[in-house]
Amino acid sequence: MNRRGLLGGLAAGGAALAAGAPASAAEPVGPRSVLVYTAIALLEERVSHGTTPYGERFRIPIIGGSFEGPEIRGRIVPGGADWQVLRADGYLELLADYFMETDDKVQIKVTNRGLIQTVPGPDGGRYAMTTPRFEAPMGKYGWLNQLIFAGTVAPGEGKVPSVRLSIFKLV
Q: How far apart are CA 162 and CA 156, in angstroms?
């Protein structure tokens, strides 16, 4: 497809979306989020790699866990890592790289970027969001390759260090 055809297709798709929207076509319509799964990722203690020009660097080994949602469930495969940089402004940049295995034994690669506010804001809350990208084999879980996802990050519970992730598809 050439550039003109691609742009025409995008314009036609945008017009179709606008035609189905209850608001006027001039008003932007934002995405809707739908829960894909909730996960508990089990972690080892963080390992410091020192201070760099970008901030203090850490690695947190991912040692397992589980995930479950309406269309997908399984386990987090041990062996991944969450690379983190604590910036001067108190925000933590995350880059986690790991595999999930579904209950029917399909391996799915996950690359998850995130940003966490380490110091509570004026309202006492902390910003903690993530944007996972999946690499799934074609077939039953191929839809993971075709959508944009966002999620929340919260501390896990229990004796083993962990985090709770709630992952949503944007539609």
A: 5
